[in-house]
Structure formats: structure tokens, C-alpha cells
Amino acid sequence: MAKRDYYEVLGVAKNATADEIKKAYRKLAIENHPDRNPGDKAAEERFKEATEAYEVLSDQTKRDAYDNYGFAGVNNAGGAQGYSAAYRDFSDIFSGGGFEDIFSSIFGGGGFRSQQSSSRASNQGQSFRYNVEVELKDILTECKKDITYNRQVPCESCNGTGSSSGKPSRKICPQCNGTGYVRQSSAFFSMQRPCPQCGGEGRIIDDPCPKCHGSGLMRKQQKIRVNIRPGIQDGTDIILQGMGNAGTNGGPYGDLYVRVNVRQDKFYVRQNDDLFVQIPISVTQAALGLSVNVPLLDGTTEKVEIPAGIQDGKMVRVKGKGMPHYRGYGNGDLYVKFRLMVPKRLNAKAKALMTELSQALGEEESPRPMSFEED
User: Fold this and answer.
1) Which of 180, 215, 218, 234 could pair with 200 in a Cys bridge, judged by C-beta atoms 3.0 to 4.6 Å apart?
2) What's the rounded Cα separation, in Å, for the pair 293 and 364?
3) Domain residue ranges of the chain, discontinuous segments joined by +
């Protein structure tokens, strides 16, 4: 198969900058790397093709030769010899821009760590989320929820030091010789990863605490009461600072994100801070314009006047009877949608009265069609 133009392979213009070339290659390498596509020969070939193109175009001398003479000018530049030259280390092409995290998720490591100092670095503890469910009526006023969860706290036995003596006692990690990382080869790549024995610190506990096994942390059940403000929106996170896991080596605690999920109500629909409810009315109520007592979400009722002659599906707005504003003061509105309920059966008296009413209204036996605009 004939080779494709290197610029075409990377999807860049012939006047592309070095940064544009690097960015294009990074994208292709991530998508097609053999470790991410095991057994996919097509992806492997695309990876090799892109690597060969990058190895030439990333070197200005080789790029000039390719621009002037095509493949003949770089006969010995591409191919297998180029892979190791293009990627002796991830720290160049994949450093910055979040690619460390991307490759960590692809290859299962957290590479790109520089050599660790001999002292332990303190790190903030992990933050995590806890979901709570509330009813719509619960958040008409301030709602309190008691939650129980497990989190990591400093080990009581060693005071969080990880050492059985209670005092930090460390030695150089024998697996990485104190560098904090190990090098691993994969396909055409050679990359460094945090040392699995010391976790990238370069040193290990000399006398690990038997209770926490040298981690300095232990699991503990935590009970707290969460205050949920009125009118909170579904899916909102309440951040409780310092209620997550403890940090390592004296680092700060992480946070707890309490996500509030508001269950849908059977009768009331919420839109922002407004509420919508459907209320059935009779033909006479609609025609005469009587009033009805509309039940509210808090269990009380509100007297609502029905406009005389109201049609099925029309709404009446009741100000200030919706949900409380989560931020600020006041409430949204309540929209009452009146649904006209036609009786399915009539007794003799009701039938006689309805017949008399029909005659009094002069109802037509042959009504004309009605346009949708008239609805």
C-alpha cells in the first residue's frame, strides 16, 4: 500500500506549527495506541503511521527534507527506527494540557512524576459525594437530614504517622531506590510510573503500624446532620468542607458533597420556583364562575375564583404560592390548570335540567367547524 502524505496522516496543513503537529499527533496516539486497542491491527497500523509522520515532521531538518524531496528525502527517518527516537520519554510529547491524567486512565498508572524528595509530601484527602432524597413538600421549609457514612481519619494507634512507634521512621524504597517511580516499557513506549511499593514517595515505613499497615489512616463511621435550605433545586450539591477523607502526612481533609435529589410529586409539577397543579371542575362551575378551594403542597387550601365561562385547560395564576426561592426571598407562583369534567351519567332530574339548559342556550344541532386558532 502506498504511503500517505505525512501532513494528511496527522490531519494538519503544510504550514502547521510545531505545536499544531504535536497536538494532532497526541490525539491520534491516544486514540490508536495498541495498549488501548488490544488485538486491533487497524488501530496499530494507524498508530505506527502517525508515529512515523510525527517523527519526521517534528524534526525541522527532516521536515525540510520531506517538504523538498518527499519520501525520498527521509528514506531512513521513518519506520521502526523512528519509534524509539520519537518517544524516549512521555514527559515531552504528553506533558501538560491534562494528558498526564488521560494516559493515567488509559494505561492504569499515574506517570509523569518527577523524582520525589526524601521527605513525605502532604496531600489533601479525597472528597466524595453522598446522595440524599427529599420530597417536594419537605423543602417548603428548611429540611434536616441525618446521614451516616464511612470515611478515613488519622489512625488512633500511630497518630497518623504510619509507624508503630508513633514517630516517622522511614527508609529508602528498595524497589525504586528512592526515586519514587519505576520505568515500564509498553509497545513502542517507555514510560515511568509511580512506584507501587512506596506510592511514589521514594521511602517506605521502616516499622509499619499493625493497625493501619503503615498508611496512617483508618476507617471510621461518621454521623452528621445536613441542613437543606428551602427551595433547593434537584441535583444541587451541598459542600461540607473538611468532612471527606483525611489527608496523608498531615494534609487537610477532603470535602463531602451532599447531592440533594428531589422526588417528583404525584400532583404538583415544579418548573424553577413555580408550581403547576390540575384541578377538575364541573360544567356549571365553569359556566357560572364559582370559586373552589385548591389544596396546596403544605396541606392548606387556597380559595381560587374561577372566571365565568372558563374553557377546559385554561390556567389561573396564584401569586406567591409556589416554591420558596433558594436564593433570596419570597416564593414562586402557583398555576392552577382547570380541567372540565363532563358527567358520564345523569339521573332523571339532572337530565331534565340539562335539557332545559340546552334549550335556553339555543344550542345548535349543526355547529360549524372551529379553527384551531379559535381554541
Assistant:
1) 180
2) 34
3) 6-86, 269-362
Phi-psi region of 299 (alpha: psi -120 to 50; beta: other; left: phi over 0): left
Of 87-101, 153-167, 169-183, 225-239, highest mean pLDDT: 225-239
Summarize pLDDT for 162-181 with one digit per residue, the tens: 888 877 777 888 888 888 88
**Dihedral-angle region of residue 98 (phi above 0 means left; psi in -120 to 50 means alpha; beta otherwise):** left
At the fourth CATH level, the homologous superfamily of domain 6-86 is: DnaJ domain (1.10.287.110)
Query: What gap in Å lies between CA 279 and CA 294, rounded to an integer?
Result: 7
Q: Say what the pTM is.
A: 0.58
Neighbours of 213 (CB within 10 A): 13
For 116-128, the pLDDT digits (tens) are 443 455 678 889 8
| Residue 236 burial (CB count, 10 A) | 14
**Neighbour tally for 190: CB within 10 Å:** 14
C-alpha 181/C-alpha 192 separation (Å) is: 6
